[in-house]
Structure formats: C-alpha cells, structure tokens
C-alpha cells in the first residue's frame, strides 16, 4: 500500500483579511497541498475590518462582519492559534516561535502582519481615553466612552478612517469633531470641491470639522483626557480622543528575522520576500516601492501569491487605486489622477439641487482620474476605462453624464444627442421641465429667445446650470431662426454667472468658501481658474470679514509677496507715508536699508512716497524688518485696495489753504489703509480749489473750500483719463470721513473685481451712489460695515511675514530642499 505524500507545512502569521484570503486562494487552486496553521494576535476569528465603522455606528453587530467562522477553519483542516502572537522567526531553521513557548516549523511562510496605527508623539498621549481605530478592541473602547451622558469626542485625522470613526461616534450620540492638518478632508482622495461637499455632508450628520489645525498637546485631569490643545491656542474639550492619522506597515518580525525591509517588507511580483520560502501579503508589504492600505490591492496580491504557492507564476503588477467612502449616506468615489495637472483636461458636472459633483480628468485622450460626490454609480465604469487605457475622444461630449447616456448616444455629436433625447427627458431639474414641454412651448407660442423660454416654461430660470442644454433645444427647434443671446459678461469661462450674480448669491445664500460658491453656482471646472479665483477670493473677503480666510494662492504674485515684481525678477518696496508726510528718522531708515541691501534705485513716486527698486526676493523679509523697526508699514503699492492719500500742505503752511488738508489726508489714510477693494483705490485731499494735490483725477477726492469740503468721485489718470464728479458737500471733517468711508464700502460691496471706481460709477449711476451715501441711515450702515471689516484688514502684512507667516514664499527652493527629510 502506497503511503500518501505528506502535506507541506504552510504557516501564516496574521489572521486578518489578507492572511485568510491568501489561504482561501491557495485552497481554491490546490486544497490538498498544504497543512495550514494560522496565528492571530486577536482572540477571535477573521472579520472584516472595513466594516468596523458600521459596528461602531450601531448598524451591525460583530457577528455580521465575520468573514471566516470557526467552521471554516475546521472544515479546511486549518489549525488556528487565536490570541497568540508570534514573537520570532528563525529563517535558517524555518521555524516560528509564539507566545507560551510554542514552536512550529514551516516549509512555506506567509507574513500577513498588516499595519499599526500611527500615534502622534503629543504630550498627554498616554492619558486614559486616548485610543486608535484599528480593531474590535478599539471599537469596544469607543463604545464604552460613548455610553457616558453628554460625552464629547475629538478625532485627529480627516482621512478615511478618521471620518468613519467620527461618523460612528456621532451616530452613538457623541458630539464629534474631526481635527485635520490639511485644508481639505481626504486630500489624498478628494479635490477641494469634493472635500467641501463631504465636509457639508458630515456637518448634516452631526460631525464638526476643524481644518488646517495643528495639534499641540492632549490635555487631561486625574489621568483622563479632557481636551485637545491646538497650536493657535484653542482647546477642544473631549472625553474621548481618537488618533486616526495614518498607518505604517508592521515589519517588526520581518526586520528582526533579517528579511529585507524598506517602508514595508520588500517583495517581488510573486509576493516573495528576500527569503525564497517566505512570502508576504497585505498592508505590511512594499511592492515596487509602493505600500497599499486599501483592500482591492490586497485581493490582487493574494491571487498572485496563491499562484506562486501552487506551481504557478505570480504576476502582481501593482494596483490602480480607487476609493469609495463607507460613511452611510455619503456617496463618494475617487480614482487615479483625480487632481489633474499639467497636460490634463477637466470635465466637470455639478447639480446643486441634488448635491452632486463629478470631475473626470482626461490626459492624452484617456481617463486619468475621477472624483464623484453624491452620485458615484458610474465610479466603476470610469475606473474600468482608466485601467484599460481606453481612448475616450469619441465619447468626450457625454462622458461626464455616465455610462448609460454615453453608451446610448455613442457616436453622436452634441446636437444629435439632444435630438435623440426623448420628450420625457428632464432638462431642468430645479423646475422639473422636460424636453417635450420646451419644444411644445417654442412651437406653439413662437418663442425665439432664452428669456422667452424661461418666462413660459421656467426652464433654466433657477440655478441656470441647464442653460446650455436649453439653448441647444432652442437651437434645434428653431434651426436657422436661432440667434444666440448676448448680455452681461460672465465672470469667466468656468461659469455663465455674471459678477453680479455671484456677489448676490454669496450674500443671499450665505456661501462662505470658494468650494461652496462653485458648488452652489455649479462651476464647470473643479477649482476655478486664474480669472475667477481672485475675484471669488475678494468677494468672500468682502462679504464675510473675520469669517472667510484669505486664500493666498488665489492672489497674484505681487499680493502674495506684498511687493511689486519688476521685469528682471526683483521687487520694489514702498513703505507707507501717511498723507505724504515723513520724518528724518524714516528717511534715514530708508537710506540705511538701501545701502545695507545694495538696492540699486531709490525713486520718489507720484503718490508722495519713496520706492526702493531692485530688492531680491530673498531679502524682502529682512528689508521689511528694518523698515518695521523704524515704525514703517507696507504701502500696499501692489494691492487691489487703498494705495495712497495724496495731500497738499493746506492751511498749516499755504496762504491759500482753507482747511487742514494734510491732517485730513493722514486721518483718511490711517483709517482706510489695509482695506481690500475690487481694484486699486487712490485718494487725494487738496486744501483749496487750486487743487495742488490733483484730487479731481483720483478715485475719491476732497477739495477743501471755505464752507467745508467737496467730496469727489470717479476720477482716473492712467490709461483712461477722467475727471471726477461731485458726490456731495459737507461742512465738517468728520462728515467728510463718514461719506468717503461709506462710498468706499459701497464700492467694495457693489464693484466687480478689477472694475475701477469710475467704471463702477458709470455702471450703477452717480445718483444711486449719492442717494445711499447722503441718506443718514444708509450712510451709517455702510460706515459701520466698513469699520467692522477694518478690524480684520488693518494689519501690516510685512510684520506678519517678518514673524514667519507664509515663509515658504521667500525661501529659495535650493534652501528648502536642505530641510526635507531623506
């Protein structure tokens, strides 16, 4: 009788999803080859870690997320050592050593040790109530904390795991706050627009978010956590603190055994380590320099490993990743090069009413990445197109609308696609208007313009996002009789909305961030462009002083570095001289700076200031520091805002002077400085009608007369030369300040970005401006709003940069590289 060939000994270190899936794949290919032994550090069978979030949220029980129950191990003859961690591996003897003195030999060994949660090295990290979110024990600890009345939780980390933890805790009744270092949630998977929508969706589900926050210390009392202190001084109170700031491959055993370890355990395409009898799979692995923390790559690794262990040839080539967020009710998908970049084209669709945002990135005629929010049904289709490298040029026009529409209309041009739509196809989602209703109205009532269609059918009368489609229906129905409408110029190519539409929507809808504006008004691009972003940044700053945080990346280079770039790449620095007045000490400081930094040119400007020309960018903070030390601040010579207040010597020195023009000019400049505006603003105060300060060609001017002050508006002396018009006359200096501040605020609120005062005046009418700034109640309201905004604007940007704010703008790339960790 022939004896059966003894089975090879396959030992698996790790009873998680990767280890057990690898065994399943081996058994599927050759169920009789190996005698399998599995070690697991946790005292339980294999369960789905991805589903810990529903367990935390109370939507599932542990039994619901078990993948391999006890019967699976028994039926497949697998020996399970649950709750017994392996302590060492002897590669030469081919043995593993476990807790309790257990020693087992192997023929083949699989390392599936997974990853460990990263813990920030913060003071207070050892307090009771500070946990991670990695296994069932962590979930049980969080559930115990959530059972306390009025319990509060802070989660550090706005990635996938942190958001799942926060949502689950909120579902359990805790007040949950996510603290994230970056300005966008899940920034590795989502762009700014999708991150904004996710933040709003989480807020609706009871999860607050604090973005751009640096954690400094975990505070506590009597050994229990009581809060998280941020570097800006804020303390977020909590009874539970969850660290979800990332994972790192668990390579402890592999490294101690002498296997090659980089970030993870190094493996080849067959998942073989540097020892030919030892394999590795899952989150502990590094393959071709890449570590993976998502489940899809793990399944692909397991298939390759099983092939190698059953006489096949493992061929894992790496994974193209996609992410679907598992927080209940929040439908998010991302894959590939979702943030676009040079050489890429963005196709964007937004539906504000449904909270939908889609972005597909095209590169070289192929799908390079995608972000979907609110409707992720086509995520798999985009992912398949991306992995296949399919040429999508032929379906470019309909790609963003998804698989069903694209495949149904494949090969048709846009007008043919509209023609192919059934009459029941909804065109305007806001008002529920279908194609048939529009075509019937056009034909029956003789409609010829978009406004006609809006008036009769309400199509495109609300959010306006369907306007291009309505126009196509109109064009298709009228044929040669169609004429495109003209009207106010849109803000840019990203949106058909005008500047006025955008400004009204920001205030009326309470939109307080750039992504909020782009989503609500359904921008056609994911992040806007160089035309609309500076405009939106200004409109938000003006509408929400103290609430909106200035986005420096949406400013031009001069405003980012607070100096004017010159044609040779150097900068000019202009310190402020109040009303054109200076002192020997200030002049001496300017001379010292010019000599110290070898500044090649010193020029008196037309605005009664001194310009230092040829300053190197690296030297800017040091130049500012020396000028600050002499009491001088930025002259904002680069700003869309107040530049100068030019004055004559007035009644103090001039025999013709009727009022103290110098004093009023200094008062106005010290009151108005720092304020941002749609475009540059220049003022002047002349002490008499001889007008030596040229007040009648400035944006706002004051001409002093015997009876008081003439307030002028709407002058220009640049490319377009234009004299001012008299806005009003007042008797006192206080009234002059009130009127000018009110007019300035009205311009700030009504002007379109880059629209000078005289163009704004031409558009809205002098009488409209006059009516508002001369009415006592309206003037006071405008004045009060300006005063409030100045609380946040009248800050010297030079002093901030000297103190280190936005230091990266002034550090040369070569110097930055010195501090990048190897």
UniProtKB/TrEMBL annotation:
One of the Pfam families matching this protein, by short name: Pyr_redox_2
UniProt cofactor(s): [4Fe-4S] cluster; [2Fe-2S] cluster; FAD; siroheme
Q: Which residue numbers delimit the FAD/NAD(P)-binding domain?
A: 9-286
Record-level GO BP terms? nitrate assimilation
How the cofactor is bound: the record states: Binds 1 [4Fe-4S] cluster per subunit.
Q: Where is the NADH-rubredoxin oxidoreductase C-terminal domain?
A: 322-388
Q: In which pathway does it act?
A: Nitrogen metabolism; nitrate reduction (assimilation)
* Residues covered by the BFD-like [2Fe-2S]-binding domain: 427-475, 491-540
A GO term for molecular function: 2 iron, 2 sulfur cluster binding
> Domain Nitrite/sulphite reductase 4Fe-4S: where?
639-776
What keywords tag this UniProt record?
2Fe-2S, 4Fe-4S, FAD, Flavoprotein, Heme, Iron, Iron-sulfur, Metal-binding, Nitrate assimilation, Oxidoreductase
Q: Where is the Nitrite/Sulfite reductase ferredoxin-like domain?
A: 566-630
Task: State the EC number(s).
Answer: 1.7.1.4
Q: Where does siroheme bind?
A: 692
Q: Where does [4Fe-4S] cluster bind?
A: 648, 654, 688, 692
Family to which this protein belongs: Belongs to the nitrite and sulfite reductase 4Fe-4S domain family.
Q: Which NCBIfam families match?
A: nitri_red_nirB
Protein name (Swiss-Prot/TrEMBL): Nitrite reductase (NAD(P)H) catalytic subunit
Which species does the entry assign this protein to?
Caulobacter vibrioides (strain NA1000 / CB15N)
Corresponding gene?
Answer: nirB
